Every structure is written in C-alpha cells, then in structure tokens.
Amino acid sequence: MIKLVDLLNIPEDDYKDYKIHLATGADDKMKPYNSFIIGKFKEWQEEQTSKNWSRKYIISLIYYSKNTWLYGGVYEVLPIKPIPITNGKWNGWKYETKLLNIQSDLIGRVLFYFKKEFRASYPTLELKATNGMSPSDIYVSSIFDKKIAITDFLGFDQVNIDHETLRLIVNDNILSWKSALSNVKGIYLIMDELTGKQYVGSAYGDECIWQRWSEYAKNGHGGNIELKELLRENGEDYKFNFKYSVLEICNMSLGNEYIISRENHWKEVLMTRRFGLNKN
User: Fold this and answer.
1) Structurally, how many domains does the chain consist of?
2) Largest Cα–Cα distance in the chain?
3) Whole-prediction pTM value?
4) Would 150 be classed as within a structural domain?
5) Contacts of 168 (CB under 8 A, 6+ apart)
6) Are residues 34 and 139 in the same domain?
7) Could you read off the pLDDT of 3-35 as tens digits, one per residue?
8) DSSP 1
C-alpha cells in the first residue's frame, strides 16, 4: 500500500507546509473534475470563498467517486496577496499559484482512497482525525495507463457535463463523444444549476443526440421556446449554468411516437411541466 505522503516524498517534519484540497463543488461534486478535464482546474481552484491557502503548498485531490480522489498535482501558493472578487451573489478571493513538477506524470492518472468523515475540505497533513482516516493515511487505490481526458467517453450513464464542456466537445469534434452520441436517439435532461429546475428533451426523427446537442452548444437554447425565454430574461451567458445528461437512449430505427412517449414519461416522472422548464 503506497501512501500519498510516500508517493510525494513528504517527510513528517514538512507536513506543516502543506494543505490538502479535497476538491468538490458546493452544489455539484463533479464541478472540479469537469474543470480538470477541460484544462481549467488551476483557475477553478484559485478562486476561494475564504482565505483557505495559508500554507506554502496545496496537494490537490479531485473528487472522482465515493471515497475516491484523483491526483490533481501539487501547487505552490505564490507570495501575492489574494485579491477580493465578486461574481454576482458570490464573494471570495483570487489566489495566484504555480503547478510544481512533483510526480507530474501521475496527474490525472492516480486515484487515491480516502474515506472523509469530517467536514473540512482543506485539512492539514498533520491532522489526526477523531473518526476514520487521517489525511496522512490517504493511499493509492489504482493507477491508469494514461491521463484522464475529455477525449474519454465513459458511457451514457456517466454523462453529466456543463455547457462549457459541451461546447468544447462539439467545437473540437471529439471523436469518442461524437461516435457515441451520433448513433442513438433518446431522452436527455438539461439542469439549471442555479435554480435546480429541469428541462426534458428528446432527439427523434432524423436527429441523433449529437446533432441535437450541437445546437445547444451553439446558442444554449437549441431552439426550445422555454430555454430561449430563460436566456432572454437572464442574458446569453446564463447558458453556462446548464448541465446536460442522458436519461434514456433509443435505437436509431425506433419511430417518433415511441420516443415522444418516453419523453412524456420522463416529464411526468420528474414533474418538469409543473416544477421545471417544460411547458408542454
């Protein structure tokens, strides 16, 4: 069993210089992971709601699944005062950091096991947990052959991407995603992260999910009246609050009536006509 501190060659006397960042999103645990796969984790991490970086180094572990964390690298906190920032209702601090060349070949490849049984997302290495594992006990659970990347389509049941990620996938014509989404019709879900309201849509007729989602990538509304209205009221950039997932996939040979019936089924199940963004 290889521990995190052994992999990074951190002696116990130096624990005082490090903080671990157990990176999860406040409302969406996968937000930092999505930022990582599109190459924007550093920028995401540098914006903090509080003055969290009081030590010289940050060990970034990104939420991957229950009790499993992806190695995101070791960052040096540069000696520049954090800048206060305001983004709508969100207030915080902008730090400047530098990614160090410490096991950099393992960034995005190593998964660590850590059962977090305390609330803190920024524990120190020397913290001794009263319940469960201490941060210094974090250990390697597996190592991938190659770095996790946006080019990896992990399956329809794993799709849960934000608008920025969708736009990058479509604009870069990423083959694994295009191949998967171009060969199915189906029912999809668009979630408004700010309000929690949902929109159920479908791809049928001559359309596949890839073609349908390509329209969303362009303008955020895909021609849907309800989403057009939402963007008109809140501005075009509101589309960056949308997340996309797949509820059900269907063979391309299935007729329109069947797919529309499944779309109506999901609207009833999720009550998106009454509480969400569907009007019909």
Assistant:
1) 2
2) 68
3) 0.73
4) no
5) 38, 150, 174
6) yes
7) 999 999 999 999 999 999 999 987 778 889 989
8) -
